[in-house]
TrEMBL record, chains A, B:
This is Uncharacterized conserved protein. Belongs to the tRNA methyltransferase O family. GO terms for molecular function: tRNA (L-threonylcarbamoyladenosine(37)-C2) methyltransferase activity. Residues 19-158 form the TsaA-like domain. It comes from the Bacteria. Gene3D superfamilies: YaeB-like. Keywords: S-adenosyl-L-methionine. Coiled coil: none annotated. PANTHER family: TRNA (ADENINE(37)-N6)-METHYLTRANSFERASE.
Amino acid sequence: MAAFRLGPEPRAMTTTFDMMPVAIVEGCYPDKFGVPRQPGLASSATARLVLQPPFDTADALRGLEDFSHVWLTFVFHRNPTAWHALVRPPRLGGNRKVGVFASRATHRPNRIGLSLVEIAGIERTPHPTIIIRGHDLVDGTPVLDIKPYLPWSDSVDNARAGFAPAPPPQYAVIYSEAARKTLATRPDGDALVTLINDVIAQDPRPAYHRGNTERLYGVRLRDIDVKFRETVLDGQCTLKIVAIDTP
Amino acid sequence: MAAFRLGPEPRAMTTTFDMMPVAIVEGCYPDKFGVPRQPGLASSATARLVLQPPFDTADALRGLEDFSHVWLTFVFHRNPTAWHALVRPPRLGGNRKVGVFASRATHRPNRIGLSLVEIAGIERTPHPTIIIRGHDLVDGTPVLDIKPYLPWSDSVDNARAGFAPAPPPQYAVIYSEAARKTLATRPDGDALVTLINDVIAQDPRPAYHRGNTERLYGVRLRDIDVKFRETVLDGQCTLKIVAIDTP
């Protein structure tokens, strides 16, 4: 298909753009490992999005309470700046390669991420802050822009989505007696169980680790360390919370 | 609503991030004036998205043909870098102010734009290029990232969208005999009529110019200059294409 071209030759641009964080994420994922691979998968996860100087005025948030969701443009700041033209999405079992621009891989040029999150609240003092829910952002993530979600402009009926046509499968999550006991001692125990279920059900392990029932994994959530292991229950791959390490 | 906070105090970040264009837009809108205020409003508008060195490898686009839409993160490079905490959206008639983060205004911190566009084709030689349709990007726009649209992650049922709950109204567009004649001389005349209808029907004028039937406006599309004026037809505000100036 032809598209109009103003000049005969493609143009080059050597300008670069210096971006400042407008907000910083304070959230429940201290590490990259375990962070949901898309927003909305862990719907219980909340975070604070604290505006940064010189953008930290409550005026900049005026009217945002009339919207239910926002887009966040952020930087995968904990990722190396190296990028590759081809990546191996976990959805393809880590075997097949696709182009970096045909994926949402975190290793990418400019390390730009995009997340659609729910607005759970807005605080104006002492620091202008948006409380967000269902996020997929590592604690400390710099956010470069915040825009309201417009349903009539931002959603497409019958879109084709290649290798990722549906949400990834969820796994059953079970708890050891020891893990249950530790959680029972926490005032935020119920919220933690919901968060652990959301996060572990997605199986944060690399695709090629599936089927390995020997190895023990650790995911940090808030201030706890969740130890889990694959186990087989009724012939089904299940993820078992073996222990909870607390500070 | 409370969200978990790891530390007692909000953190500050003074790091900035230097971004390189991964692609440049070659499109039908040489100027800012007339560009649709959201993608999808001018569904006929096509553009070429030409990958830039060092990202200009066809590998980076592998598998993208299996997706129908992409998100583009770009820079409003023709806008001043100045920003204001409060903006006056055209949707509110230019009277009411809302916070910059509750709007998609182009005058914003980091000048970051976000567009959902349809993939109309992919070219691999001589320059890796995505042909996009239904875009809202000025010719020459630097694109910082390209990501596939994921329907199960990127759309929300029953989202609330404050002051912009539905697409903006469309106006009737009529043509003078002179404009019709000029368009008939162009090999791309039919495509131009579709594009002109799409663009002018949205009324690109500032909200406070509505009702002014005196003033003549010019919108550049591709290599033509479209002159239009508000007129009243059957008691309805109508936009009349008065003349088409060609090179």
